[in-house]
Design goal:
Organism: Schleiferilactobacillus harbinensis
InterPro entries: Calcineurin-like_PHP, Metallo-depent_PP-like, Phosphoesterase_putative
Helix content: 25-40%
Distance between the termini: 10 Å
Number of domains: 1
Strand content: 15-25%
Order of helices and strands: EHEHEHHEEHHEHHEEEEEHE
Structural class: alpha/beta
Protein name: Metallophosphoesterase
């Protein structure tokens, strides 16, 4: 079975009409023999728009490819509350779910994720309150409904992931884990001359999540996005980490390597082939 992942498509930020690409995406997924396609967050700046997109794309794909999705921070800024993100009932919504992949010894495990400032560079001399105030003043996440502190929200993520991995272990399966936020410091780039970015790194993810995943004997693959730079696959202690977000194709923020969405989508599609029984 072949499972594909995309993150950070940002259709609205990139001023793209998503349905214009349905046929080309379907054709490519079928050519690549993809059975499952997972969106790892930041599809739109509105959760309800993301849900409508997922429904429309799944209807277009038919029974050929099964679609799943998570919410990234951009999806969270409009059209959804924190309580709704935690309880949303939709067959394709992968947050805090374990989905067994039929005919294999593998399961998808999804979690939207969050952050706890543990990926900020050492030696900045900043407190949690400093990072929180900076976020509220300068970062898009200030618009996200969050009744919990960032640390407590991340604590909940860790409990969910731990429980879901225990479910996978009880099923004697291997996990393909998908999240939006960054789980390892290896992927962060710090710059002494960019204090704005160094503050933002606190909001990228959690090294505590990375530690939990690294310690789990059932985790086979970890897929994430959010950083908007592309990395070669990282093999660490027998686990594969995949991070090739599509990102922005804007004059003010050009992160693409071509001028064409489909080229970027194909080049950033992360594919794992897993053995069937």
């Amino acid at each position: 079975m072949r499972v594909a992942f995309s993150t950070d498509l940002h259709f609205d930020v990139n001023h793209l009409t998503a349905s214009d690409y349905f046929q080309a995406q379907k054709d490519y997924l079928e050519q690549q023999n993809i059975s499952v396609y997972v969106l790892g967050g930041d599809t739109f700046n509105d959760f309800q728009t993301t849900v409508r997109y997922v429904d429309a794309l799944q209807a277009f794909l038919g029974n050929t490819v099964q679609l799943y999705f998570l919410a990234g921070n951009h999806d969270m800024v409009k059209g959804v509350t924190y309580a709704e993100l935690e309880s949303f009932d939709h067959p394709a919504y992968l947050h805090h779910r374990v989905v067994s992949l039929p005919g294999t010894d593998y399961a998808l495990v999804g979690n939207n994720g969050w952050y706890d400032y543990t990926l900020a560079p050492a030696g900045q001399g900043k407190t949690a309150e400093d990072y929180f105030r900076w976020k509220k003043a300068f970062w898009i996440d200030s618009a996200i409904d969050s009744p919990l502190s960032d640390m407590k929200r991340m604590d909940r993520v860790l409990k969910q992931v731990q429980a879901d991995l225990a479910t996978v272990a009880a099923q004697r399966k291997r996990a393909l884990f998908v999240t939006h936020f960054v789980p390892r410091q290896d992927f962060l780039i710090y710059a002494g001359d960019r204090p704005y970015w160094n503050m933002a790194t606190a909001l990228m993810g959690s090294s505590r999540l990375g530690g939990l995943l690294a310690a789990s004997p059932v985790v086979d693959t970890v897929v994430f996005g959010h950083l908007h730079h592309r990395d070669a696959p990282l093999l660490a202690a027998g686990q594969v980490y995949l991070h090739t977000p599509l990102g922005y194709g804007l004059k003010r923020a050009w992160e693409w390597q071509s001028t064409d969405f489909m080229t970027e989508w194909r080049n950033t599609l992360m594919i794992r082939e897993i053995p069937e029984k």
